[in-house]
């Protein structure tokens, strides 16, 4: 079992705070800083990769694998935020279907582990692993068991799946945006509908990625970036040097990220004790 300490953030090279410099990206992503989208734009425009691949929530809780090959497609795919869903097989299938030779995968920590192992410790499918150039993982506290959560929203709050436009985490509440209304559900209440795998998941930041990205409350409008190796460091620094992002030191927010990571580990330990 992973100890509760610095190791729960995994190995890292640097911690930064970053923000997109492109006005169009910034306008869409004011709250998050848009650094992930800006870095992906850099990777596409500089020809570092052929495509960006992610499995994204498209409506309600439906998810599908998407590919973006230029900034326009990236902005369409990302919308005003990256709502990633934990489907790994669909991403793999998409990369193979479209015969993409070099990609960035934007994913959640559990997917980062799957793809990181396929790339760095391949057993059989070396051809597939070689196609993964970068793995960018978003911080994650959990995703919901679709059917059970939708049923609960309908029965308890009268909200239908096809009405849901977005779901966001906001301090101690889960905000469900539907029609022109925002329903704030206390996190404690919503947590009982997390997927079982999430209840025992201990990785908050995506320790298998090249770059982890997320937010802290003390630095609104900035994206926290954790680079984990030379590959991730070069990607982030390249985006900065080529004018795609503003970048500053983020060492002072490590404690905040660590606090969330510890909460996730503690939750997993509690749940494991109950489950096993
Ligand atoms: S909590 Fe863990 S298992 Fe669940 S979606 Fe996030 S990274 Fe994946």
The CATH architecture category of the largest domain equals 3-Layer(aba) Sandwich
Strand line-up in the sheet with most strands: 3-2-4-5-9-10-1-11
Spell the H/E element sequence: EHHEEHHEHHEHEEEHHEEHEH
Number of helices: 11
By secondary-structure content and strand pairing, the structural class works out as: alpha/beta
Mean pLDDT equals 88
Descriptors:
Nuclear Transport Factor 2, Chain: A; 3-stranded antiparallel beta sheet; 8-stranded mixed beta sheet; 276 residues; Aspartate Aminotransferase, domain 2; binds iron/sulfur cluster; alpha/beta; 2 domains; disordered N terminus
Write the topology of this structure:
Elements: E1 14-20, H1 23-28, H2 35-45, E2 51-59, E3 62-68, H3 71-78, H4 89-97, E4 103-107, H5 109-120, H6 126-129, E5 132-138, H7 146-157, E6 164-170, E7 173-178, E8 181-186, H8 187-190, H9 196-199, E9 211-214, E10 223-227, H10 230-241, E11 245-249, H11 254-275
Parallel strand pairs: 2-4, 4-5, 5-9
Antiparallel strand pairs: 1-10, 1-11, 2-3, 6-7, 7-8, 9-10
The chain binds iron/sulfur cluster.
């Amino acid at each position: 079992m992973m100890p509760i300490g610095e190791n729960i953030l995994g190995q890292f090279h640097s911690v930064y705070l970053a923000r997109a410099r492109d006005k169009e990206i910034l306008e869409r992503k004011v709250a998050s800083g848009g650094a992930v989208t800006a870095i992906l734009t850099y990777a596409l425009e500089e020809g570092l990769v052929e495509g960006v691949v992610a499995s994204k929530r498209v409506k309600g809780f439906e998810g599908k694998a998407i590919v973006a090959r230029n900034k326009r497609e990236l902005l369409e795919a990302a919308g005003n935020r990256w709502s990633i869903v934990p489907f790994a097989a669909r991403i793999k299938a998409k990369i193979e279907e479209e015969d993409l030779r070099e990609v960035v995968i934007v994913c959640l920590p559990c997917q980062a582990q799957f793809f990181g192992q396929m790339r760095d410790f391949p057993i059989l499918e070396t051809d597939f692993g070689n196609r993964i150039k970068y793995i960018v993982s978003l911080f994650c506290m959990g995703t919901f068991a679709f059917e059970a959560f939708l049923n609960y929203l309908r029965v308890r709050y009268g909200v239908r799946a096809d009405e849901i436009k977005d779901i966001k985490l906001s301090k101690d509440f889960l905000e469900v945006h539907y029609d022109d209304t925002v329903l704030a559900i206390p996190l404690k209440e919503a947590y009982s509908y997390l997927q079982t795998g999430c209840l025992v998941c201990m990785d908050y930041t995506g320790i298998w990625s090249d770059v982890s990205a997320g937010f802290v409350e003390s630095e609104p409008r900035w994206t926290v970036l954790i680079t984990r190796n030379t590959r991730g460091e070069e990607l982030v620094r390249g985006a900065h040097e080529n004018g795609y992002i503003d970048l500053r030191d983020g060492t002072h927010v490590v404690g905040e990220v660590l606090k969330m990571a510890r909460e996730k580990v503690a939750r997993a330990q509690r749940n494991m004790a109950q489950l096993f």
